[in-house]
Automatic annotation (TrEMBL), chain A:
Record bears the keyword Magnesium: no
Entry similarity comment: Belongs to the HypD family.
Entry annotated with the keyword Nucleus: no
Name of the protein in its database record: Hydrogenase expression/formation protein HypD
Automatic annotation (TrEMBL), chain B:
Short name of any one Pfam family annotated for the protein: HupF_HypC
UniProt protein name: Hydrogenase expression/formation protein HypC
Record GO terms (molecular function): carbon dioxide binding; iron ion binding
Xref: NCBIfam families: hypC_hupF
Listed InterPro entries: Hydgase_assmbl_chp_CS (IPR019812), Hydrogenase_HupF/HypC (IPR001109)
GO biological process: protein maturation
Recorded family membership: Belongs to the HupF/HypC family.
Protein's organism: Chitinophaga costaii
Length: 367, 86
């Protein structure tokens, strides 16, 4: 309770918990897609406060975590051998590739920079006309419009020294990959609120219908999460499967259409490899062929050897909810946020790292 | 990195021959630049949800204040500021 008492809405949280206890009669497996939601559930100690019958499964919703190792190696290659100014969000630069991270490459002399926004990278390119600037463009649908805008700004500026290395993943295909898997245990989804702020709700109706699974689009504060879970459990208990929107203060049916247009101008949908899960058809975004000048993958000849993931990592099972992070033999031993063996340990929004950081608040975890 | 933070538009300026609107947005006193290209209707004084330098949604003032307080309490705002200083 230590964590919750700090918040203004401890009372409302208590009310929703009470409501949840009254509603639930059978065990349910619920997946939250968004890593921000995982982080919030664990950090606020909500997992241990909820009824035992509710099993929260932590999905693959952390773009930094699911970025394949070989892409990180590519970014490091560009920064160390091509005299490129390599920039991205702080989280991405901290993730180790097969040998080291971009921040370690920086410490060894490479020009690697943490930026708050891809638009700042365009400015850097303008200020450094004799250098190539590459933005490592990672993210879900929430971040795609900003990364796309950076390309459009570079185009308007007439810059030829700016490009992006894309690691863009899309949420609905990942939900389908999970729901349609033979070993799936998930019975209902909490949809990712900020993703839907951009994309709206329309993509989710077919998933609800096809898999007969309820989805509640939810925010990430403790009250949002509990309300979303109550809405979902009410549906599950009735045998209903509908799409509901808990986050209507930010999410409209059609999303942000201006943002969707910018995405379509710059990106096209492509197959994508998700670290810890594997290839998911049509689950990512790549720069359109007519904008190849801004695509680091096409602009540079990047020849790096293929890499394989650690055999000891059971991320595939963790990300599908079959195992909890603390059931992994390497959790907190060989695998820690400083030396992550696999995807869910690499950023604080990954399930393994969230459990590791807040294991004190989560007494079911023995570290 | 997926966080979106609410702030208030202080001023708006036009770039690229008037085609792009950029705003100065205040996040509890910390002022940052944000593109308004995704929100054609946003105007000075409005509250907007900003994600990595791009405003993605209009927010009402009360909601913005609540959401900002929460992010501050859990330390995410410090992260926003730190992020740019490394
Ligand atoms: S604890 Fe580490 S090794 Fe185990 S599943 Fe998580 S990331 Fe993989």
């Amino acid at each position: 309770m230590k964590y919750l008492s700090e918040y203004r809405d401890a009372d409302i949280v208590a009310q929703y918990l009470e409501e949840l206890k009254k509603t639930v009669t059978r065990p349910w497996n619920i997946m939250e897609i968004c890593g921000g939601q995982t982080h919030s559930l664990v950090k606020n100690g909500l997992l241990s406060l909820m009824p035992d019958k509710i099993n929260m499964v932590h999905g693959p919703g952390c773009p930094v975590c699911v970025t394949p190792l070989h892409l990180i190696d590519k970014a490091i290659y560009l920064a160390t051998t091509q005299r490129v100014i390599l920039c991205s969000f702080g989280d991405m630069l901290r993730v180790p590739g097969s040998t080291h991270s971009l921040l370690e490459a920086k410490a060894a002399g490479a020009d690697v920079r943490i930026l708050y926004s891809p638009l700042e990278a365009v400015k850097l390119a303008k200020e450094n006309p004799d250098r190539e600037v590459v933005f490592f463009a990672v993210g879900f649908e929430t971040t795609a419009p900003a990364n796309a805008l950076s390309v459009l700004h570079a185009q308007r500026e007439g810059l030829r020294n700016y490009s992006i290395l894309t690691s863009h993943v899309l949420v609905p295909p990942a939900m389908e990959a999970i729901a349609g898997d033979d070993s799936n245990i998930v019975q209902g989804f909490l949809g990712a609120g900020h993703v839907c702020t951009i994309m709206g709700l329309t993509e989710y109706y077919p998933i609800v219908a096809k898999y007969k699974m309820p989805i509640v689009v939810t925010g990430f504060e403790p009250v949002d999460l509990l309300q979303g879970i109550v809405m979902l459990v009410r549906q599950l208990e009735r045998g209903a499967y509908k799409l509901e929107n808990q986050y209507s203060r930010f999410v409209q049916e059609t999303g942000n259409t201006a943002a969707q247009q910018v995405m379509q101008q710059v990106f096209e949908v492509a197959n994508r490899e998700w670290r810890g899960i594997g290839n998911i058809p049509l689950s990512g975004l790549e720069v359109r062929a007519d904008l190849a000048l801004y695509d680091a993958n096409k602009k540079f000849d990047i020849a790096i050897p293929p890499v394989t993931e650690s055999k000891e990592c059971i991320a595939g099972q963790v990300l599908r909810g079959i195992k909890k992070p603390y059931e992994c033999p390497q959790f907190g031993k060989k695998c820690t946020p400083t030396f992550p063996l696999g995807a869910p340990m690499v950023s604080s929004e990954g399930a393994c790292a969230a459990y590791y950081h807040f294991s004190q608040a989560e007494n079911r975890v023995a570290v | 990195m997926c966080l979106a933070i609410p702030g208030k538009i202080q001023s708006i300026e036009l770039r690229y021959e008037g085609k792009v609107r950029m705003a100065k947005v205040s996040f509890g006193g910390v002022v940052k630049e944000a593109s308004l290209e995704m929100l054609p209707a946003a105007k000075e004084g409005d509250y907007v949800l900003v994600h990595v330098g791009v405003a993605i949604s209009l927010v009402d003032a009360e909601e913005a204040a609540k959401s900002f307080e929460y992010l501050k309490e859990i330390g995410e705002i410090d992260e926003l500021i730190d992020h740019t200083q490394v």
